[in-house]
Amino acid sequence: MSQSAPDASHRRPRIVLGVGGGIAAYKACEVLRRLTESGHEVRVVPTESALRFVGAATFEALSGQRVHTGVFEDVPEVPHVRLGQNADLVLVAPATANLLAKAAHGLADDLLTNTLLTARCPVLMVPAMHTEMWEHPATRANVALLRSRGVIVLEPASGRLTGKDTGKGRLPDPAEIVDLARLLLARSDALPQDLAGVRVVVSGGGTREPLDPVRFLGNRSSGRQGYALARVAAQRGARVTLVGANTVDLPDPAGVDVVRVRTAEDLHQAMRVAAETADVLVMAAAVADFRPTAMLGHKIKKTDRDPDPIALTRTTDVLAELVTERRAGQVIVGFAAETGDAETSVLDHGRAKLKRKGCDLLLVNEVGDGSAFEIPDNTGWLLGADGTETFIPTGSKAQLAAVLWDAVTALRAT
């Protein structure tokens, strides 16, 4: 009996991972591992210089695919054409200043640069170089030219570079690169430069209100959604400040200024300061509604008698205050983690909160039973003050972020 061809919709996404010749090439191994473990078929195409940092055997072992650098290997397969034609995504990490220049001017002197010329899928280039090289007018012009042709060139991170140098030009965290690569596989139009120059402030994470030197009142928010919002906004061109509440385990998103806070009052003050110059405010943090009236200076001991009641007082409603004090033209987005009850649905609770808070957009999440908090995916309803309601199906938190920024961009254009 003959077998039918496999359904193309069920094949593994094909990614070409280009690796440039910079010290950050070793991080490409972690990018490769994460991509293959999440079900992607990855062919590594390094430059000759990249193989001075990481050997071909390492890439072959992690990918299960042969590694070549030149166009005269496996000639019958025509790899310099086929790789680009068959790929769903070409990801170059790290992209050196030399690679960016070659790509911008159509040079094709090895397998990777030939692949870039033949690719008809999204191309994502992740720069890594010294600050002076990134800021040089030639590099900036090459990046602008590539972006004008539809190539997605990420903003690099800031931090430790080669030797003792620090500054902008560091390769973003591998998890961040993979997150954005998967976003582009799901939505090739997810990272336009439509927020260029827009000043954005995002809050994320969960506040903690101390009871004593050991214990606190808190919540289950990991901060991943807020970080995804900041990450996507920065790569769409925005100038982003992220107010992160108890998110020390999350790496700073590339191109984002991070302000770390702990309590609801810390977050309140940080958001007030940041809001003064912001064009868009997004309150994605889970902020405590109540805090202990007083923090004990010693650890509460377990005794035979019942513990004393803990007196609570309300915290500032940060979102409502931001709406009240907003500047003209400022767009404000809120988040609502809701549960339904016998009389009222999650969506009805969200509608009531949108009306009560007065923000422009409200993202409503249903929480509980493994939803929203502490997981990589998210879903919800995006409600507009104009009465629009958009359901966002389950997808990565970066995908939800892209939908939200689409809505913000459309709102700012009206």
From TrEMBL:
Residues 200-414 are annotated as: Phosphopantothenate--cysteine ligase. Binds 1 FMN per subunit. SUPFAM superfamilies: CoaB-like, Homo-oligomeric flavin-containing Cys decarboxylases, HFCD. Its EC number is 4.1.1.36, 6.3.2.5. Its cofactor is FMN; Mg(2+). The keyword DNA repair does not apply. GO terms for molecular function: FMN binding; metal ion binding; phosphopantothenate--cysteine ligase activity; phosphopantothenoylcysteine decarboxylase activity. Residues 14-180 form the Flavoprotein domain. Residues 195-410 form the DNA/pantothenate metabolism flavoprotein C-terminal domain. Pathway: Cofactor biosynthesis; coenzyme A biosynthesis; CoA from (R)-pantothenate: step 2/5; Cofactor biosynthesis; coenzyme A biosynthesis; CoA from (R)-pantothenate: step 3/5. Catalyzes two sequential steps in the biosynthesis of coenzyme A. In the first step cysteine is conjugated to 4'-phosphopantothenate to form 4-phosphopantothenoylcysteine. In the second step the latter compound is decarboxylated to form 4'-phosphopantotheine. Catalyzes two steps in the biosynthesis of coenzyme A. In the first step cysteine is conjugated to 4'-phosphopantothenate to form 4-phosphopantothenoylcysteine, in the latter compound is decarboxylated to form 4'-phosphopantotheine. In the C-terminal section; belongs to the PPC synthetase family. In the N-terminal section; belongs to the HFCD (homo-oligomeric flavin containing Cys decarboxylase) superfamily. This is Coenzyme A biosynthesis bifunctional protein CoaBC. It comes from Solihabitans fulvus.
